[in-house]
Amino acid sequence: MLKNKTKVLSIFSCVASLTVMSSCALQQQSAETEPSTNSSINEVQISLEPLEPATVDISQKFDSNNVAQSQQVEAAEILADDVWLRLRNNMSFDLSTDNRAIRQQRNWFAKHPEYFKRVSHRAERYLYHVANAIEAQGMPAELALLPIVESAYDPFAYSHGRASGMWQFIPSTGKRFGLQQDWWYDGRRDVVKSTEAALAYMRYLHKRFDGDWLHALAAYNSGEGNVSRAIKRNRARGQATDFWSLTLPSETQAYVPKMIALAQILHDPESYGIHFPAIADQPYFESVEIGSQIDLAQAADLADISLDEMYLLNPGFNQWATRPDGPHQLNVPVANAPAFKTKLAGLPADKRINWVRYQIKSGDTLSVIASRYKTTSKMLRQVNDLQGSNIRAGKVLFVPVASKGAEAYVLSATERLNSKQNRTTLSNRIKQIHITQSGDSFWQIARRYKVNTRDVARWNNLGTTDTLRVGQKLVIWGKAKTTASNGRQLIRKVGYHVRNGDSLALIAQKFNVRISDIESWNGINRKKYLQPGQALKLFVDVTQASL
Question: What are the residue numbers of the active site?
Fold first, then answer.
């Protein structure tokens, strides 16, 4: 483990919860939006060549004067000391823009210094790698702030819109940029692969929007189609087409100011009174070729690190072992890499995974056996040289098994789900189990248990657009029947800002009120669409509302 430097650097962190939350899966947010794209990989030519060193202003070009001034401040000493300071010295954006949206973000950061420490603690494993990857591509150093806005540098972040990883790729965009996703492995969470993909996507967006980084950032959040259409509308009206003049989703209108505010704070942290520990400007991990599948618990023992640390450095692996078909690389702390390589080389290939002999019983299927031993039917077919899925009772199968109990693999996908399902911050809730049936949907299940569809998804680490499987176990934290101690309702006036995906029905269900009452209180009609950020006043029985 690298030790934090004792000196501290004023800096920044993640996002303010304004009227409409960003689509990034920040941990303190419950409503994120899918960063969708509107073009297929087959429709565009994506150049993976590094960009030329940036020389343009944030809208059309960079301010080279800012770079020159920064580089004059003890550059050699700073570059050898702290990644944040290196980023600060290499910043390229013109940060002179100052408006209400940016000020709101800066004010939020200044009021939440404890959040900066959490972000820095997460980022210490990954920031050096991200900074180097950005620098190697000749891209703006400010892009290292993007995972703060997206996920607070949490590689396990997952949004209701199915965005995953610290760069928050949805499945389709991840596949578009070469990120594998299956039962064993999710490349969207792989620190190295997802960083490569995110920078490739940003290079493409930068080129598509003629070198305008604000347009590129907006498109990363809301989809390139949304930004292109907004530009086209303004051109048709003879209006300016810079980011600040476009009509975009509210979350995107907050997203870009967050990035600008973060960059401004990083550029001059002392002015905002924001401090957190420096991160050593040296590699935290080394990627080691392992050649074939290995039990992650065994790999952690070989590397002399905890299993949790192994998962934090290799968050792309979903299960107890690496993916049978690769990638065959593991990230281990730099200091531990030489001994790990030596021990790995001395480990016989047949000892990398534990095996059991399983005698097939009447009624068994490959899928049932695979589920019991936390592996896949494909793996069983490969190991046992089976051509199909037909098996016979009495025959023996070789089955790969984890070397430790499930409780040891606390950061595997299965154990993270168990932890999520057994944890709620809400009082007066009763845990219920729902086994999905044919035809079930999130909406039907939520309606049955009188809860919110997004809550059902969140409690089970799912997105609301995920496909439910027949027989899938879902945890529902249903509302307990409670009344005020004096037997009367406790009515309070509540201000509520509409979020993306909200409807009058969802809001009424959440606060246990009638749609007609919401209409009456706010002088609105259910035939008109609600707008994200729209303010509503509600009169709620606080003993019954789902707060």
Answer: 150
pLDDT in tens, 377-435: 888 988 888 888 889 999 999 888 887 776 677 677 766 666 666 665 555 566 777 88
Task: Estimate the crossing angle of helix 191-208 against helix 127-136, to 10 degrees.
Answer: 40
CATH fold of 491-541 reads Membrane-bound Lytic Murein Transglycosylase D; Chain A (3.10.350)
Q: Do domains 8-36+52-277 and 491-541 have the same CATH topology?
A: no
What local confidence, expressed as pLDDT, does residue 424 receive? 56
Burial 177-202 (b: 16+ CB within 10 A, else e): bebbbeebbbbbbbbbbbbbbbbbbb
Closest CA to 255 of 519, 38, 23, 488: 23
CA distance 542 to 506: 17
- Domain 354-405: which topology? Membrane-bound Lytic Murein Transglycosylase D; Chain A (3.10.350)
Residue ranges in 152-237 assigned as alpha helix (H): 171-176, 191-208, 213-222, 224-236
386/395 Cα distance (integer angstroms):
12
Mean predicted confidence (pLDDT) in 60-85: 48
Residue 526: strand, helix, or coil: coil
When comparing pLDDT for 376 and 206, which is higher? 206
CA–CA separation, 439 vs 444, rounded Å? 9
pLDDT in tens, 485-502: 444 445 666 788 888 888
| Superfamily of structural domain 422-479 | LysM domain (3.10.350.10)
Give the global pTM. Answer: 0.65
As a whole number of angstroms, the distance between CA 1 and CA 348 comes to 28
